[in-house]
Every structure is written in structure tokens, then in C-alpha cells.
């Protein structure tokens, strides 16, 4: 039930977040074209992630799925919250991030040890949350992970 509630909160907040907060332009790339990138590349990794999870590209939110690829984070509700803890540790600050962390901590108190581990992983990585990943799609995922200690 709590997973359902958190997912509904996300769905209700996603559109206003995309429209009013995210100022970046959509990437203008089709999901199918991502599979044309070299297999070790970030672009291919993103395409594989999207197909594996039956997701589509979400305009202006493409970076979110890139973070999943780079950090090897799953897509369950608590893992999504954990990824926000990771990003907090990595230096990202946003109202949306704080809202997810607050609600996630309240709804998943038994996951706090996991959240703390994710925060520490983000803290140990070099800051990468602000990068323009749309210009990095040909780079090998492993190179990005190694460079930023992800």
C-alpha cells in the first residue's frame, strides 16, 4: 500500500516538476536509437535500461534514468528513494530531492540503513550529478564510473 501511495505522489508531482522546475531542453532522441550506440556506451546502457524496465524516455527527466544506469540502482520504490540519498551525498540539492527523502524516510524507516549506505556511496563519488549527460552518450559507462568513482 505504501509503495502505491508513494508512486501516486510521484505521478502527481512529475508533470509540475517537468513543466515549472526543469529548465533544460528535452534530449530529442528516440529510445530505439539508443540501441544503435556502441554496447559499452552510456547511450546503449540507457536504452537497455529503458527496454528492460519497459520505460519510455521522460522529457526533461532523462538524467534520472542515466543516474540509474551509472549507479546500478534498481527501480523499486525504496531503491528510488535510495538513489535520492545517493544524490544528496553527491552534492545535489533540490526541493524535489528533499521531498522524496523526507517522505521516503517516513514511509520506509526499516530501510534507513540502506539509505545511509547510499548516501555514503554518493559522498565517496566525485560530484557528477550536474553533468550534461546528453553530450556523454558515446562514452563507455565504465569510464564514467571510474572517472567519478561511482
Question: How are the elements arranged and paired?
Answer:
Elements: H1 2-21, H2 31-34, H3 42-52, H4 62-71, H5 77-89, H6 95-107, H7 112-124, H8 141-148
Helix pairs in contact: 3-4, 5-6, 5-7
Structural overview:
The protein has 150 residues and is mostly helical. It has one domain. The chain has eight helices and no strands. α3 packs across α4, α5 packs across α6 and α5 runs parallel beside α7. The longest helix has 20 residues. It is globular and about 40 Å long. It starts with a helix and ends with a helix. 25% of the residues are buried. The mean pLDDT is 91.
How widely separated are the two ends? 33 Å
Estimate the strand proportion.
under 5%
Largest sheet: none
Helix content: 55-70%
- The value of Rg in angstroms is 15 Å
